[in-house]
Write a structure and sequence with these properties.
heterodimer, A: mainly beta, six-stranded mixed β-sheet, five-stranded antiparallel β-sheet, 11 strands, about 60% strand, B: mainly beta, four-stranded antiparallel β-sheet, about 45% strand
Chain lengths: ~110, ~110
């Protein structure tokens, strides 16, 4: 059964304290892995697409990586404005979304 | 450019009434998706339109839910005889095609009293 699991469910970091969010997946025929950021009361905002193992994408303090079974979203020296829920999705036969990691960055 | 828009932003209705939620996708996007997000939950897939193909309705939770997409653009999600468990945020997304990143609208918050 295709599924996506994100961990941890919640993460609290001090400003400047780097960390990583995990997205583990089981899907038949991965056709893409996607990271989104969702702020309260808003729709998810697209961050990255990764298509093949070994691929990496970067944007400001965020870096996404992909292996054959999981993806990591690395956050370097986070700021309070990085606080949000980060969602991972995979495209197999359908799109499957994880339940997200709620990140809080404390000043 | 214009993103995905949804209306209304909030809808409060009484149990048993029908509601219609509207989605205007990004111009030129052939794929359109509807999702439901309950408080503290992940996104639940409802339905997927791709071009002129028959929609993938496999995520619709009951026959009270239906959706249509007119002219390959605007989509309407209809919920008949609403129940309290239908209360959630309904999100619409569009993309260039079925394997590309999706761009989401702001959602419609539905409250069924």
């Amino acid at each position: 059964e295709d599924q996506v699991t994100q961990s941890p469910e919640a993460l609290r970091l001090q400003e400047g304290e780097s960390s990583s969010l995990n997205c583990s997946y089981t899907v038949s025929g991965l056709r893409g892995l996607f990271w989104y950021r969702q702020d309260p009361g808003k729709g998810p905002e697209f961050l990255f697409t990764l298509y093949s193992a070994g691929e990496e994408k970067e944007k400001e303090r965020l870096k996404a990586t992909l292996t054959k079974k999981e993806s990591f979203l690395h956050i370097t020296a986070p700021k309070p404005e990085d606080s949000a829920t980060y969602l991972c999705a995979v495209r197999g036969n359908q799109f499957y979304f994880g339940t997200g990691t709620s990140l809080t960055v404390i000043p | 450019g214009a993103g995905v828009s949804q209306s209304p932003s909030n809808k409060v209705t009484e149990k048993g009434k029908d509601v219609e939620l509207r989605c205007d996708p990004i111009s030129g996007h052939t794929a359109l998706y509807w999702y439901r997000q309950s408080l503290g939950q992940g996104l639940e897939f409802l339905i997927y339109f791709q071009g002129n193909s028959a929609p993938d309705k496999s995520g619709l939770p009951s026959d009270r839910f239906s959706a249509e997409r007119t002219g390959g653009s605007v989509s309407t999600l209809t919920i008949q005889r609403t129940q309290q468990e239908d209360s959630a945020v309904y999100l619409c997304a569009s993309s260039l095609g079925g394997v590309y990143e999706q761009f989401f609208g702001p959602g419609t918050r539905l409250t069924v009293l």
